[in-house]
């Protein structure tokens, strides 16, 4: 079983999983959505996908496989007739926040060296998936993670006026140090690492 962040599962993993199933018809991948620290001692979890960076918890082996890059994303219609030249201009669009990444705006503004920007106001959503849908629907501008908005950018549902910058974290593959069946999950680990290399 693969325990995975819900929005990452929906927006990155599931759209690509058909390729794994086609190449590995004898392996059944079961998915479980969770944001909690993975409990490898219960629930039959073989691999967990989380956003983070070392050091890993005791008894856990982890490695990054996809860098997290972040930036403001907004529906194209919301930009019509507006000049967005500096981060402060985004305030006029209405800021959107996700409870699962409460410091996303402050982090991005610090990386951009932006000042005089009140990033505390705006609508709040429980999960990143709802946040991205709100942004695509023109409700405001959100800080998006590139792997989560890649398809929306390609389809034109969202645009990124300032591009994306590394957040300092990565999507990581975690497994237990002891007692895990490495052979059982090795095909999945190799596949998802290869997928990440073609989508960076």
Describe this protein's structure.
This protein is an alpha/beta fold and 200 residues long. Helices cover 33% and strands 24% of the residues. The protein is built from six helices and eight strands; from the N terminus they run E-H-E-E-E-H-E-H-E-H-E-H-E-H. It has helices at residues 6-23, 76-79, 104-112, 128-136, 146-155, 182-197; strands at residues 2-4, 31-33, 47-52, 60-73, 96-98, 123-125, 142-145, 165-176. A six-stranded mixed beta sheet has the order 2-1-3-8-4-7, sandwiched between helices. Helix 1 (6-23) crosses helix 5. The longest helix is centred in the N-terminal third of the chain and has 18 residues, at 6-23. The chain is elongated, with a radius of gyration of 18 Å. The model has no long low-confidence stretch (mean pLDDT 89).
Topology:
Elements: E1 2-4, H1 6-23, E2 31-33, E3 47-52, E4 60-73, H2 76-79, E5 96-98, H3 104-112, E6 123-125, H4 128-136, E7 142-145, H5 146-155, E8 165-176, H6 182-197
Parallel strand pairs: 1-2, 1-3, 5-6
Antiparallel strand pairs: 3-8, 4-7, 4-8
Helix pairs in contact: 1-5
């Amino acid at each position: 079983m693969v325990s995975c962040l819900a929005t990452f599962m929906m927006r990155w993993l599931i759209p690509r999983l058909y390729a794994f199933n086609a190449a590995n018809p004898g392996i059944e991948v079961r998915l479980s959505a969770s944001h909690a620290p993975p409990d490898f001692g219960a629930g039959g979890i073989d691999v967990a996908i989380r956003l983070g960076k070392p050091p890993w918890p005791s008894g856990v082996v982890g490695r990054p496989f996809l860098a997290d890059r972040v930036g403001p994303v907004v529906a194209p219609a919301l930009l019509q007739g507006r000049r967005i030249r500096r981060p402060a201009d985004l305030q006029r669009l209405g800021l959107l926040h996700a409870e699962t990444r409460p410091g996303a705006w402050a982090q991005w503004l610090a990386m951009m060296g932006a000042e005089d920007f009140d990033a505390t106001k705006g609508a709040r959503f429980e999960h990143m998936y709802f946040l991205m849908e709100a942004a695509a629907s023109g409700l405001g501008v959100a800080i998006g993670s590139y792997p989560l908005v890649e398809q929306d950018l390609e389809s034109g549902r969202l645009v990124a006026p300032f591009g994306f910058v590394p957040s300092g974290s990565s999507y990581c593959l975690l497994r237990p140090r002891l007692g895990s069946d490495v052979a059982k999950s090795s095909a999945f680990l190799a596949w998802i690492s290869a997928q990440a290399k073609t989508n960076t």
